[in-house]
Each structure stands twice: as structure tokens, then as C-alpha cells.
Write a structure and sequence with these properties.
Blueprint lengths: L1 E6 L8 H11 L5 E6 L4 E4 L3 H6 L7 E7 L3 H15 L20 H4 L4 E4 L1 E4 L2 E8 L5 H6 L6 H25 L2 H14 L2 H8 L7 H17 L4 H5 L1 H16 L13 E5 L5 H7 L4 E6 L7 H8 L4 E3 L10 E5 L4 E4 L3 H21 L16 E6 L4 H7 L4 E6 L1 H4 L8 H15 L3 E5 L34 H14 L5 E5 L5 H20 L7 E7 L4 H4 L9 E4 L1 H8 L18 H13 L3 E4 L10 H6 L4 E4 L4 H8 L4 H12 L4 H12 L12 E5 L4 H14 L6 H14 L3 E3 L2 E2 L2 E4 L6 E12 L5 E11 L7 H10 L3 H9 L3 H12 L2
Parallel strand pairs: 7-8, 8-9, 9-10, 13-14, 13-20, 14-15, 15-16, 16-17, 17-18, 18-19, 21-25, 23-26, 24-26
Antiparallel strand pairs: 1-4, 2-3, 2-4, 5-12, 6-10, 7-11, 11-12, 22-23, 25-26
Helix pairs in contact: 6-7, 6-9, 6-11, 9-11, 12-13, 14-27, 17-18, 18-19, 25-26, 27-28
Length: 823
């Protein structure tokens, strides 16, 4: 017998992937190979992946491989080389590089001692609630509902299920890429493991096949649950996932129903939540969603954004059912069992969000007008007819994009004409004559419908989709056209067709719509006012828009697809996603030329429309109709009121001269940071506040700057303040602190003041009763450090301090500060 002694070099321990690598090498030899974990004294068969995982080998565990058999010398040589040279490379790092590493936690929140899980926030927002796992199934309990079976039938059914599931996984693996393919490969290895097959096909006596499956999976998971490694504990999820897949195939029916939410809840799902599941879950108690996959452009994410539900994509999120949670998809974080620090941060954030909403609420009742009096229509994107009412309540001046795919997806047959008609009519009735743009079915490619049986395509984004499908699915297309034209009797309707790339398609659409309109007229059906338009989302639209006025009335730029088609980058591909940037100067050239060439009315309805940073560019290009998510409309109206069209045109021309997107972004930040608000303002004084910590004081002050729209984000200025505090304490003495910073996040240089009810510690044994904060824009041409030095001198005088400490009127105190500090 030969031995190989080694210390486990794997940071994550010997879990499925490295175990599979070892098992594959052991399988090449006839000798028996046994792994001995010297820490816990476990001895397992190295020819089984599940047995190797069950050995609970952790990082730095001392181990031995014992090799016994006729080819032990050859096995010893190969396995020695593998252990020495290759084993350490069989696993990735503990913290893979994802977007959350580029998104640090706010300074105040970073002080929490609670568990913080990081993901990818794809629908922004803040939420609290209890964890509700989606799809949690108690297999033993489920098995009690199944009829009893004899051992022979159990074995037969389990063997068939195992074969079917292996075939499924192999097919899915062929279609998958990247990490998904690796995970599926590991699952295939587990399903092919001799230990699993033996345990599954020869279990102890059980009531039926499902009970036998439940017993087997639980037994295989037990060693992982007992592991000291949290990582290996969570790998039990792989086996549980396989168990649920096997059980679904065994029973040939769904294993669970959606939960009935009775309290504020955050749904936790290991996989994708479908749009239908989202809509079924939606209600007053659905506060947030954590799901294992979904991307930024899936229909579920679009719905979550539309309804204001925060959503985090987080693979393998392991959270106990019922655990209290705090999630913030803006900062990509899920906090389990939030402590007092996290809860205080949440309360402060909710107060800030409510104050911003109150400030913007009057704008929901006004029209979009620039500072120099130019009218700009700000419209809403919706995906369901039910969203229209909330969109108009949020200040939308119309519907710029009604995506109709939700009517068609997640069902076995397409909606009939009447169902569609009622949905379209509902939106038009709510609009009361306002602009409504309904997009015809944008299906195919990345958005399939099962009942269409569309073929697999190598490149679905450039394939058989949208308008290209219509001639082949004439009945579905005609049904939608009839429903749309009938609905136009309820109000003026703009009908928009996606993915149009040629003049021939435009001519065909024009003829087809007018044929249907004439047919309806012949039938005696009333058709109201309607117009035909196209989505400008492929580069060829640049040339179509100056030639198509004879056949269409309008176009809407779909910036999401137009950017990725123009720059030839799939925004869902992590390797090229960095190229997807609508601030790229060449794309801005395309946009500008498209607006200049168009002989039809032009709108923009992609994500670019909701980005406040780029609004000056859109206005500078001449766009006067912009569609966005409803929640952004009030803020966009506020921003619009501060802009002048001539300045926007100049900003666009400067952007077109930039060399890259980074230069454009810097230019836009510089342009938006031009100071238009006074440095001193009564709204910047927070008097007689009950504050318990330095962190709370700084957050309150920086949040107030965000509410007053003097900074891009209060959290960025908060960070800048703390960076200076880390160098030296800004406690001046005389019970006064002067925190300060100069930052690109500051739009308008400001002097803020907080007077405390009770002195608090500012560090280094200094208590303060007065906090005066200076925040200076990097673009500020004046020298506001003169204010800092003058303030420091003034604070040495007791009468000045007493006036600040005892004054009751914010206006008088502001005037005094300005008079004393700017002389």
C-alpha cells in the first residue's frame, strides 16, 4: 500500500468541483483509493464525489490518500503529481469579483455587526421584512400524500427518474455558459456518482419512491450540514436542489405553491422568479426580492422596477425562513437580523426618502418645462395596463412605452382579441386624451413564448424576433392589430412596432394596418384616431427616419438595444459589458444625427431617458419627448426646470468632441455642478436635534444636502467627510466641530449647521454641541477655505458661539453666518 500525505490547499475546502477532479483521476485505476481526514478521523472512498465531500476536508486540514491494489505505483505517481501541482488550482477564490466590490457600503451602515450578504442590485430600493423562501419543500411531508408502493416499483421509478434527470441536466449544460455551465457540470457529476446511485436504488424500507428519495438526500446532506465550514454547509443546497429536481420528475407535477404573504416579506428564491410568480406575489406585503438569477433586462426585473420593488440577484443566498431582513438594492446588500446600527440607518434612510418624495410631490401635477420655457413631455414606460394609473399619479404626461409582452408570456396559448382590447382600452381610458404609445409584440430572441415553438438560435438578439416574426404568425399579429385599432375608439393611440430595420418592413406594416382598419370599418366596428410608428433600435434606423415619413408618423429611440447593436456588445455578457455605455461619443453622434435627420416626430424610451446625468444631451439633440420609469418623472421635471436649451446644445457639442465615455461623464458632472444655489440657506440649519452619535450627525447633515438637491448623493459626501475625519478630528474646541470636504459629488457649495440638544463625543475625548459642516464643489472657482479659516477664528469669540447656540430663528442665524463669514 502506498500513501500520499498532504495539507488541503483549497480555501473553500474539498467541495464538489475539486472532489470531482480527484475522483476522475482515481477512476482511472483499479486500485482502491481511500481519503483519510486526520482532523476528524473520517475515512471515505476517493472514487465517490459525494463520499469525498462528506469527509468535511477544510482548508489546511492534514490528509492522506491510501492506495492499495495492483496498479498502486502508477496511481501513486499520478495522484502525487495532481496533489502537488494541480489540486490548489481546482477552486476559485472565496470572493469572486462582482459588482458589489465596486459598491462600498455607506460609512454609517458599514459599522453594523450583522451579517451582510452582497449581490447585484437590479431594481433599486430599500426594504424590510421577514425571509420567505420560495419553493421550500418538505419532501417527507410531501411523500405522506403519495400512495404506498412496493420496493420493486420504487426502485423502477427511481431508476427511471435518475436517467431522465441526467438527460435533462446534460441538455441544459450544453446550452449553458460560464458559471452556469460549471454548476450544471458539478450537478451532473453528483448525479453520476456511484454512491448516490447506490443509496438511491437500495434505500431502507420506505412508504414510496418519494419517501426513499427524501431519506437518501437527507442522509447525503447530513455530513455537509455538520461541517465546520460555512461554505461546505451551503453546498448542501446543491444536493437539495438535485433532490427537488428528482422529486419533480418523479411525481410529474409541481411540488409547491406560492406563499400567501401575511406580513412584510422579502422573497428568497434560488432561481429565477417568473413574471407570473411576481404578479401573483405582488401585494402590500411584498417588500423585496432576492433571486439567484435574472439579469437587468428580464421581464421580472422590469416589473420590479415598475412597481418599486427592490430586487437583488444573489446566487446561493442561504437565509433561514422567518429571519428578519433589511435589504438595499442600491448598495447591493442583504442584512440578516439587522442590529440597532442597521435599523437606525434604515430609519434615517426612510426619513430622507420620504422628505425627497414630499419635495417632489407638487411636480406630479405640473407639465415639464425648461427654465427658458421650452415644453418637454415626460412620459412613462409600463409593462401592464394596471401600471398606468400609478404612472399618471406619479406625474406622467402620457405613456411613452406600453410593452405588450406580458399579455403573451407565461401561458399555454396567446391572448385572444377581446382580452387584448380590454387591456389597451383600459390604458387609453385612464389617459383621458394624453399620449399613449403601445408597442406591438416584441417576442422571440431573448424573450420566447413556449407556445410559439421558436427554434434555438446561435445569436437570438440578431435573429428571428419582433416584426420579423409577424408574417409567420399572421393570426397572432392580426389579432393584436385588430385589438389595438378597436381600442383607439377610447382615445388617440400611437402604435409602435419594434425591431424595424428596412423600408420594406415599414411599407408592409403600413399596408397591413390599413387593411385591417378597412376590414373593421366594413364590419361596422368603430376605429378612432391612431398613428403608426417604429422603434428606432437598430443603426439602419438613422437612414430610415428621413425616408419613412410617407408611411409612418413617429419613431421612438430604444436606446437599450440601439447602444448594444451600434457598439456590438451584448449588455448581458460580463466580458464585453463595459463597452455598453450610452455616453460613448460615437453613440452620441449617432443619436444627434438621428434626431437631425428624422422627418417624423421623435421620442426616446430607453434607460437613457431616465438617467438625469444625460438629460442635457437629449435636450441638446432636440428631443422633446422622453419616456422613463414612472418613479423618475417628478425628479426629471425638477431637473428640467433648471436647464436652458442653449446650454444643453453647447454641452452636447462639447460631449461630441470628447474621446471616450469617461470624458463625457466628467463633462456632464462639471456642467451640472455649476453653483446656482446660495452657500448659506436656512434649510441647511438643523436646530436642537437629539443625536446620539457622530455618525448619525454626519449622516443627517449630508442627507439634508441630498434632500435640498445640493449633492448628487448624500452617501458620497458622507464618505468624503469621513475620509477627512480619518486623517484628523475636526473638533475645534469650544464644543464645536467643523467637518468639511471638497468633492465632485457636491453640486453647490454649502455651509450647514446642526445644534445638538445634548453634547456628543466627536472623538479624542472632545464633546461638541455645535456642528458646522462645509461642503465644497470641486468645480468651485472661489476659495471657500477662506470661510473655514474665518469660521475657526470667529468661533474663538464667545459671543459669536452663544449667538449660534441660543438663536431661535433659522433665517436670522443664516444671515448672521453669511455676514460674519463672507466679509
Amino acid at each position: 500500500m502506498r500513501k500520499i500525505a498532504f495539507v488541503c490547499p483549497l480555501e473553500n475546502g474539498l467541495h464538489a468541483r475539486p472532489a470531482a477532479e480527484l475522483q476522475q483521476r482515481v477512476a482511472q485505476f483499479r486500485s482502491r483509493v481511500t481519503l483519510h481526514n486526520l482532523r476528524n478521523k473520517r475515512q471515505v472512498d476517493a472514487g465517490s464525489v459525494l463520499a469525498l465531500i462528506g469527509a468535511d476536508v477544510l482548508h489546511h486540514d492534514a490528509c492522506e490518500l491510501h492506495i492499495d491494489g495492483e496498479d498502486e505505483q502508477d496511481a501513486w505517481q499520478m495522484l502525487s503529481a495532481f496533489i502537488t501541482c494541480d489540486l490548489a488550482e481546482c477552486d476559485g477564490p472565496l470572493a469572486p469579483v462582482t459588482r458589489h466590490q465596486e459598491q462600498p457600503l455607506p460609512v454609517f451602515l458599514a459599522a453594523t455587526t450583522s451579517i451582510c450578504l452582497r449581490g447585484n442590485g437590479v431594481s433599486p430600493g430599500l426594504a424590510s421584512g421577514v425571509a420567505v423562501p420560495l419553493g421550500a419543500v418538505d419532501l417527507p411531508q410531501f411523500a405522506e400524500q403519495e400512495a404506498p408502493e412496493d420496493a420493486g416499483l420504487q426502485q423502477q421509478r427511481l431508476a427511471h427518474t435518475l436517467a431522465v434527470t441526467r438527460t435533462q441536466l446534460k441538455e441544459e449544460s450544453r446550452q449553458a455558459q460560464g458559471e452556469a455551465a460549471s454548476v450544471l457540470g458539478a450537478h451532473i457529476t453528483l448525479l453520476q456518482d456511484a454512491m448516490l446511485e447506490k443509496a438511491l436504488l437500495s434505500p431502507p424500507a420506505a412508504r414510496n419512491a418519494l419517501a426513499a428519495l427524501a431519506y437518501t438526500i437527507d442522509g447525503l446532506c447530513q455530513p455537509l450540514r455538520e461541517s465546520q465550514s460555512q461554505y461546505l454547509q451551503q453546498r448542501a443546497l446543491d444536493l437539495q436542489d438535485l433532490g427537488l429536481r428528482l422529486a419533480a420528475n418523479l411525481t410529474e407535477r409541481p411540488l409547491f405553491t406560492l406563499p400567501d404573504l401575511q406580513q412584510d416579506s422579502i422573497i428568497i428564491s434560488a432561481g429565477l422568479i417568473t413574471p407570473g410568480q411576481f404578479l401573483a406575489l405582488r401585494g402590500p406585503h411584498l417588500k423585496g426580492i432576492v433571486m439567484g438569477e435574472g439579469g437587468e433586462t428580464s421581464h421580472t426585473v422590469i416589473l420590479a422596477r415598475s412597481f418599486g420593488i427592490p430586487l437583488l440577484c444573489m446566487p446561493n443566498a442561504s437565509v433561514p425562513a422567518g429571519a428578519p431582513l433589511l435589504m438595499d438594492a442600491r448598495y447591493d446588500v442583504l442584512i440578516v437580523a439587522p442590529d440597532a446600527c442597521a435599523e437606525q440607518w434604515r430609519d434615517l434612510e426612510e426619513d430622507k426618502i420620504a422628505r425627497i418624495a414630499r419635495r417632489l410631490e407638487p411636480l406630479t401635477r405640473t407639465a415639464g418645462v425648461s427654465r427658458d420655457g421650452e415644453r418637454v413631455k415626460l412620459l412613462a414606460n409600463i409593462a401592464l395596463a394596471d401600471e398606468a394609473e400609478n404612472a399618471f399619479a406619479a406625474g406622467a404626461e402620457g405613456i411613452g412605452l406600453f410593452r405588450t409582452e406580458m399579455l403573451f408570456c407565461e401561458r399555454s396559448t396567446p391572448p385572444d382579441e377581446e382580452e387584448q382590447y380590454q387591456a389597451y382600452r383600459h390604458v387609453l381610458t385612464l389617459a383621458q386624451g394624453k399620449k399613449v404609445v403601445i408597442r406591438t409584440l416584441d417576442i422571440g430572441g431573448d424573450k420566447p413564448c413556449d407556445y410559439l415553438n421558436l427554434p434555438q438560435e446561435e445569436n437570438p438578439f440578431l435573429g428571428w424576433r419582433a416584426v420579423r416574426l409577424y408574417p409567420a404568425f399572421e393570426a397572432i399579429f392580426s389579432s393584436q392589430v385588430r385589438a389595438l385599432l378597436r381600442a383607439s375608439a377610447a382615445g388617440p393611440l400611437d402604435i409602435m412596432v419594434p425591431m424595424v430595420a428596412t423600408l420594406e418592413e415599414i411599407k408592409w406594416l403600413h399596408a397591413r394596418f390599413h387593411q385591417v382598419a378597412e376590414q373593421l370599418h366594413t364590419e361596422g366596428v368603430v376605429v378612432g384616431e391612431w398613428r403608426l410608428g417604429i422603434m428606432a433600435e437598430v443603426p439602419s434606423a438613422l437612414y430610415l427616419l428621413e425616408r419613412a415619413a410617407k408611411w409612418i408618423d413617429f419613431a421612438s429611440i430604444g436606446s437599450n438595444d440601439l447602444v448594444q447593436y451600434f457598439l456590438a456588445c451584448d449588455r448581458g455578457n460580463p466580458h464585453v459589458r463595459h463597452l455598453y455605455n450610452y455616453c460613448d461619443p460615437t453613440f452620441l453622434m449617432l443619436l444627434n444625427e438621428m434626431a437631425a435627420r428624422s422627418n417624423v416626430e421623435l421620442c426616446l424610451c430607453g434607460e437613457m431617458g431616465g438617467d438625469p446625468v444625460v438629460m442635457p444631451l437629449l435636450l441638446g439633440a432636440g428631443l422633446r419627448q422622453i419616456s422613463m420609469s414612472a418613479g423618475r418623472i417628478a425628479g426629471a421635471k425638477k431637473q428640467l426646470a433648471s436647464l436652458e436649451m442653449d446650454d444643453c446644445r453647447k454641452t452636447l457639442q462639447r460631449a461630441l468632441a470628447c474621446e471616450n465615455a469617461a470624458e463625457v461623464t466628467a463633462l456632464l458632472h462639471e456642467a451640472s455642478a455649476a453653483s446656482v444655489l446660495p452657500v448659506f440657506d436656512p434649510a441647511l440649519l438643523l436646530l436642537d436635534r437629539d443625536v446620539t452619535s457622530k455618525a448619525e450627525a454626519i449622516k443627517l447633515l449630508t442627507d439634508n444636502l441630498e434632500v435640498e438637491q445640493r449633492v448628487r448623493a448624500g452617501v458620497d459626501v458622507e464618505t468624503a467627510i469621513w475620509q477627512r475625519e480619518a486623517v484628523f478630528s475636526t473638533a475645534l474646541g469650544f464644543a464645536v466641530a467643523i467637518p468639511h470636504c471638497k468633492s465632485a459629488a457636491v453640486l453647490n457649495s454649502s455651509v450647514s449647521l446642526m445644534r445638538l440638544k445634548t453634547p456628543l463625543s466627536w472623538g479624542e475625548g472632545v464633546d461638541v454641541s455645535l456642528v458646522i459642516m462645509l461642503t465644497v464643489s470641486e468645480q468651485e472657482k472661489g476659495d471657500h477655505m477662506k470661510i473655514f479659516s474665518r469660521l475657526a477664528r470667529k468661533l474663538m469669540h464667545d459671543d459669536f458661539r452663544q449667538q449660534l447656540l441660543q438663536g431661535r430663528d433659522a433665517g436670522d442665524l443664516t444671515a448672521r453666518l453669511e455676514r460674519e463669514l463672507t466679509l
